[in-house]
Amino acid sequence: MDLLHYTATELGEKIKAKEVSVKEATEAVLDRIGETEEQYHCYVTLDKEGALKKAEEVQKGIDDGTLTSPLAGVPVAIKDNMCTEGMLTTCSSKILGNFVPTYTSEAVKKLEAAGAVILGKTNMDEFAMGSTTETSAFGPTKNPWNTEHVPGGSSGGSAAAVAAEECYYALGSDTGGSIRQPASYCGVVGMKPTYGTVSRYGLIAYGSSLDQIGPLGKDVRDIATVLEAIAGHDSKDSTSIERKDTDFTSALIDDVKGMKIGIPRDYFAKGIDADVKDRVLAASKVLEEKGAILEEFDLPLVEYAIPTYYTIADAEASSNLERFDGVKYGFRAEDCEELHQMYKRSRSQGFGPEVKRRIMLGSFVLSSGYYDAYYLKALKVKALIKKGFDEAFSKYDMILGPCAPTTAPRLGESLSDPMKMYLGDIYTISVNLAGLPGISLPCGTDANGLPVGLQLIGNIFEEKKLIKAAYAYEQARGAFSIDSVKEAH
Amino acid sequence: MANVISDETIDYVGILAKLELSDEEKEQAKKDLEEMLDYIDKLGELDTENVEPMSHVFPVENVFREDVVTNGDDRDNILKNAPEEKDGMFVVPSTF
Amino acid sequence: MAKEYETVIGLEVHVELATKTKIFCGCSTAFGGDPNTHTCPVCTGMPGSLPVLNKQVLEYAIAVGLATNCDITRYGKFDRKNYFYPDNPQNYQISQLYLPICRNGYVEIETETGTKKVGIHEIHMEEDAGKLIHDEWEDASLVDYNRSGVPLIEIVSEPDMRSAEEVNAYLDKLRLLIQYLGASDCKLQEGSMRADVNLSVREKGATEFGTRTEMKNLNSFRAITHAIEGERERQIALIEDGIGVTQETRRWDDTKGESYAMRSKEDAQDYRYFPDPDLVPIVVSDELLESIRKKQPEFRTEKMARYKEEYDIPEYDIEIITNSKRMADIFEETVALGAQPKKVSNWLMVETLRLLKEKEMDPADLRFSPEHLAKLIELTEKKEINSSVAKEVFEVMFDEDVDPQAYVEEKGLKAVNDEGALRKTIEEVIANNPQAVEDFHNGKEKAIGALVGQTMKAMKGKCDPAQVNSIIRELL
User: Fold this and answer.
1) DSSP conformational letter for A168
2) CA distance linking residue B26 with residue B51, whole number of Å
């Protein structure tokens, strides 16, 4: 079997069994990147030398028994909004085009401690603002299933890199669906854990109350394994939660008997592709056959989630992005004699159109006279949305639905109509508003051969239920990758 | 109830956000903002009279540090990415 | 007939808290480091950094709230105040707007017209900004973030004050309360206590407030007094001329004695406050509140009453000594070591005050220890040194806190108790000064002073002048 086809945990086992060396694995994936990266553009920064050097170090650690993690020696890609000491961290923005952090984000530190080999930093929508990875200042990433289509976003580089086997797994961040939706478009598995499960320290903030780091990988086992490695309380992040139940791999059990799954009618109403609807409902039947109990229900307020989300996320973003001012780091416009001129020019030249659009909206909804009408109102609706989920979870173990209304759109289609792009987030963003965990995994392809994503949403702290159901579905579904799907056709 | 954003409002928000928009960008920004606000106005359909605004989704509270010095001199790192530095400080256009 | 005007003043007082570390990170708050050597990713606004609240900041803020009769907010939050300025690395300041930690308090102030209550609208916690230094050579500014993130509380009064005198009394009251709590050293000159003055004028008897201005950059009691007088006159002139007052922020220039408006077109004064999503709510439990309440010290008013009861010292001394927490501490600790209260008080009232004035120092900076003062008093009581030597030793103690016993021995300043030697010297002095002896016999009492002086000089001061005096009288 081609070394590249292993999942992260399979590779970890082979390395541990000395069947594969860390160097071999790293070189294989670097060769793969050499072959396909020009076509897909998954990475903003590649660190071949660093990765090879790290591979040697990690091999020593494995050999002398100090590194025992299932991920030891497995090459990983990191979304470019997580700080990495000594490695360019740009958020795919010109304004951070030359920023080299002097500290590493907590989640990446945990992977490093587990013996991960970092290959580089993946492309994303600028500051995670977008759903297609087309707002990147460094050009779009292409969907490895069909390069005329987008990989989704904002963690599009991470999802595409996993799908294209340009890494074994990747970290992404999810503010409104930014892990789950690209995972869905690229036919990989992605999970956003409960807010507070993974430290945000070192994650460059977009919407602080919604941002959460999570894994993207080839299968559910990889997701559980990586999440187990990066979860944990961090005293540097006040919103980090102390949890004792982060042994996520213990939930890799093929058993959904008696599990109650709610299917929101509104998630299958207008605007959804027939193929997407079909595949997702078919997937639900698979779970039903395995003993799960399905029930349709009305999840309230689905259509209000998007305006609520954009009000809150953009307000927070307008403040979070104030620090990019040309004073301490990043891009500074040239020849500015006056302070405010320097601020305005640096920011106007440094940020792309989508980021500016969101900063403008965010500044407006917080400005004098509008705070109550917009921002406060959105916080109240958020409370109602949370309440709707609380009621649902009093009846169901989880909610099942699509990840996005369509499969991956063509490149260029979304940029011209931001509102349409925003509407594509309808099934994912309420999960962030309520702080819930959600997982996306492939459940087939549409008529054009593009993958469809199944989304499972759990109550807070109930990742294990999601992992269990996703694992059970995956066992029934069988292998799912570009090669395996093409072979089947 | 379509929102109308005036030139003054766009200029004002530009001052708040420290963004300098070209005339063309301003027109686009007006249109975008109007469209988004019309959409956000949808929230007005909901009665939130007795709803507490929710800024944090679940009750994590009282997260503190002890008053103990843990950081030493990290100046070289802090200044490493400075666009311009002098005498251990960041340089900006005169504020005096 | 000229109209009579009343001045209405409210104060926003910023107090730097005496914590070891900054409000949201583990950087030192110590003064005097090289620029940017007390900084980290958090207090310089690096991407991805996050704040975590220093618990001591909350406890100090609550303690000040209790001391100023405030309601303590049981469910509080931090908000972001957004504005761009290079001393503010995130371009937002973490502060409290919607749910400040303390509200609805008051303090009582004493002025010539009697006791008066000044309301406290609220007290909130926030972070200080960095420092901007003008680079003369390049016409640029340099930014130092050592002060960025130093904890502050802002005490916002009601518009209850009517004169500079009341303002100064109010500030002095706050200073004493906070110094007694140990929450800050409250030095106006050094910036650990800063006041912004909100001022308006109205015709005497009017019930509505006039339009107010806010004045910043007031770093001494003198500047505050001048600024109040200057602003009052400026506003009256504007009203009388029919122009009217504009609500604005003004900066006081104390050297020029005038203020100027700070507004610019880039300065929208729209801070877009919203709850900081990086920080979690603060819930003040009964237990926390009680533990802070229990730790509240004896404040000045109670201390003065107790001194009157316990110590036989003049009321004026009590007032001066208790006007500084440090001085009161030295007084009590020295007395506790066995020194006589009156003697301790004398050292503080005479020599200490003289040296403080001479060296332009704040009593909070007194360095000598109660142990050494007690020892010095003991040495004089035992007549091991005389009063002039004692003063000399005290000056050294004042500067360097030396052990008086060791110092006296090292410098050979001990009084000579060998009466034989002393008598011999006095005999010589008498023999060498016939004129003085004759004057004394002719009834000139003063002449004996000259003889005592000569003897002291010959003995290099190491004898007791009273003893010298009595031996001279005996011999004559």
Assistant:
1) S
2) 36
Task: Tell me the count of B-C CB pairs closer than 8 A.
Answer: 132
Instruction: State the nearest Cα–Cα gap between A107 and chain B, in angstroms.
Output: 20
Whether C162 and C263 map to the same domain: the answer is: yes
C291 interfaces chain B, CB cutoff of 8 Å: no
- Domains defined for chain B, CATH in brackets: 7-44 (1.10.20)
Structure tokens at A177: 């669906």
Residue-range domain boundaries for chain A = 3-262+395-488
Note whether C176 and C38 are same-domain residues.
yes
Q: What is the number of other CB atoms lying within 10 angstroms of the CB of residue A303? A: 14
What six digits make up the tokens of C5? Answer: 């005007």
Pairing mode, strands C102-111 and C140-144: unpaired
Q: What is the SS3 string spanning C119-161?
A: EEEEEEEEECCCEEEEECCCCEEEEECCCCCCEEEEEEECCCE
Verify that C317 and C184 share a domain, yes or no.
no
Nearest-Å Rg of the Cα atoms of chain A is 21
Instruction: Count CB atoms within 10 A of the CB of residue C265.
Output: 8
Cα(C217)–Cα(C196) distance, integer angstroms? 7
Superfamily (CATH) of domain A3-262+395-488 = Amidase signature (AS) domain (3.90.1300.10)
Over chain A (489 residues), the average pLDDT of each successive run of 10 is: 92 97 98 97 98 98 97 98 98 98 98 98 98 97 98 97 98 98 98 98 98 98 98 98 96 98 94 96 98 96 95 98 98 93 97 97 96 96 97 98 97 85 91 98 97 98 98 96 85
What's residue B95's pLDDT?
87
The pair of three-digit structure tokens given for residue A423, joined into one six-digit string: 């509407």
Provide the residue count of chain C: 476
For A323, the closest of C45, C277, C279 (CB atoms) is: C45
Amino acid at A164: A
**Å between B23 CA and nearest CA of chain A:** 13
Which chains are adjacent to chain A, needing at least 3 Cβ pairs under 8 Å? B, C
* Residue-number span of the structural domain to which C427 is assigned: 419-475
Which of A242, A324, A328 best probes binding to C when mutated, by most C CB atoms within 10 angstroms? A328
Q: Is the pLDDT score of C415 beyond 70?
A: no
Q: How far apart are CA C225 and CA A256, in angstroms?
A: 77
Q: Which residues pair with C140 in a beta bridge?
A: B93, C135
* pLDDT in the model for residue C89: 98
Helices (H), A290-435: 305-320, 339-350, 353-366, 377-395, 418-423, 429-433
Residues of A noted as catalytic: 79, 154, 178
Residue listed under structure tokens 């109660």: C370
Average pLDDT over residues C88-98: 97
Q: Average of pLDDT values for C277-288?
A: 97
Query: How many domains would you assign to chain C?
Result: 3
Where does the pLDDT of residue C30 fall: very low under 50, low under 70, confident under 90, or very high at 90 and above? very high
Pick the residue of C80, C91, C142 with the most B CBs within 10 A to test the interface with B by mutation: C142
In chain C, which residue's Cα lies nearest the Cα of A83?
Answer: C48
- Binned at pLDDT 50, 70 and 90, residue C357 comes out as very high
**How does residue C269 score in pLDDT terms, banded at 50, 70 and 90?**
confident
Cβ atoms of residues A136 and A45 within 8 Å? no
Q: Check CB contact of C278 with chain A, cutoff 8 Å.
A: yes
Question: How wide is the angle at C-alpha A26 spanned by C-alphas A25 and A32, nearest 5°?
Answer: 90
B41 Cβ contact partners less than 8 Å away, ≥ 6 residues apart: B1, B3
Residue C426 pLDDT > 90: no
**Pairwise CA distance, residues A280 & A455, whole Å:** 8
Nearest chain B residue (CA) to C33 = B73
The CB density around residue A139, as the number of other CB atoms within 10 Å, is 12
- In contact, A20 and A159? CB cutoff 8 Å: no
Q: Region C175-191: what's the mean pLDDT?
A: 92
pLDDT score of C470: 81
